Amino acid sequence: MGLSTFKPWSIGMALLACSGWALADEAVIQKKLQQLIPGAPPAKIQESQIPGLYQVSIGPKIVYMSADGHYLVSGSIVDLNTRENLTETAKNQARKTELEKLSVDSMIIYPAKGSTKRTITVFSDIDCPYCRKLHKEIPALNEAGIEVRYMAYPRAGVGSPAYQKAVSVWCSDDSRQAMDQAMESGQVSPKTCQNPVQKHMMEAEAFGVSGTPNIVFDSGEMIPGYAPANELIKMLVKS
């Protein structure tokens, strides 16, 4: 059958049928996810670069599922022609989207000097030596036009000394000064109040944070550990 025998309406019907299959596949996957995680919000589902495999975005996390919902794949898809890690690119975009949803008012912010060129969000633990090391380098980051936003992630958990210190810092009249003191000496005057520390910890888990400091760029790229200020500046403020 030659191409000329196809009518415009037949091509449109074929595209509509394909779209219908995709919607049916998405419904199957959403149903399976609801069975696995009852009450979870709907995931963002789209066709991946591999036929029959769907990319599933749950907040900043990316997994893949088969069209029938029977198989889940956790790993990276790499385009061997371009060497691009397509999964990491998708994760960066998902993290960027989730960053924009976070409450800036709940963070402790060290603003850039002059105009703000870039922003980093740091999940930090006051009792973490490398968090303290990074904290000492905030002035250099600020001078380079990088705003630093802190979120609390006391790794020892709720009720731990690190948790109590985080609460005290966030409850202080001058939380930035309290953070400086805590990062310098490991101590802070005890305070209590309505605070965002537990919410920050939940958000850290959603981002896949497992250690501190954990640095998330405004682009969504994540650095899971300490990096010197000079390296961060090179990565963030390219000359």
UniProtKB/TrEMBL annotation:
Residue span, Thioredoxin-like fold domain: 112-236
UniProt record similarity statement: Belongs to the thioredoxin family. DsbC subfamily.
Signal sequence range: 1-24
Location (main, coarse): periplasm
Pfam families (UniProt xref): DsbC_N (PF10411), Thioredoxin_2 (PF13098)
Descriptive protein name: Thiol:disulfide interchange protein
Single GO cellular component term: periplasmic space
Keywords, ordered alphabetically: Disulfide bond, Periplasm, Redox-active center, Signal
Localization in the cell: Periplasm
InterPro entries for the chain: DiS-bond_Isoase_DsbC/G, DiS-bond_isomerase_DsbC/G_N, DiS-bond_isomerase_DsbC/G_N_sf, Thiol:disulfide_interchange, Thioredoxin-like_fold, Thioredoxin-like_sf
Listed SUPFAM superfamilies: DsbC/DsbG N-terminal domain-like, Thioredoxin-like
CDD domains documented for this protein: DsbA_DsbC_DsbG (cd03020)
Domain called Disulphide bond isomerase DsbC/G N-terminal: residue spans: 22-88
Role of this protein: Required for disulfide bond formation in some periplasmic proteins. Acts by transferring its disulfide bond to other proteins and is reduced in the process.
Organism, as annotated: Hydrogenovibrio thermophilus
UniProt key word Signal: yes
Top-level lineage group: Bacteria
Keyword rRNA-binding applies: no
